Request: fold
Amino acid sequence: MTKPCPSLKLFAINRPAHGRLLLAKRHEPGVISPIKFAAAANGAQTLRNRLRAGRGAQLGSPQQNSKQKPGSMKYTTQSSPGFTLLEIVIVVALVGLLAAIAIPNMLKARARSQANICISNLRKIQEAKQQWAFETRKPSDAVPLKSDLALYLSRSGSVDKIACPADPTEQFDNSYNINPVTEPPSCKLNQAGAVSGHILE
Reply:
């Protein structure tokens, strides 16, 4: 059994503010002061109490946890900023304006491309007619048949693929009039008024 040190004297300090008794020792050289020892112990206890209080606030009090239904979870939703009605109206107006500018230009470009292809086909038919009349020695007012021009228009001997791009049937007979040798061929859709500019000049 160890004997108490005669240089230390334990005594009690009453701290009514905190309602507790703290042990201290007489101040001597090289020994911790009783006041500092009590302050350090009090600060450590206060820090532990704050940590416990913070942990309890995160987990929730027992009363709040008891009120919560078993098996239920609490979800926190974060609202994201949305678009206002004015912003949506502005975007729709801009899209409509761009569509009003782009769609007519696209239709014009498509019609111009169809006219160029049709004129190219009419030029091929005219050249085939002249070559046919020269080789067969036909008069200038002779009208060749589609079968007569087949070998001059296509290596395969078929002219079914030669048609006006604007013709939904894509058939030679529904697209072109061959006409006499001295007269250029014509597009039936252009004569009917369905398209314009499909003329070989």
Summary: The longest strand covers residues 10-15.
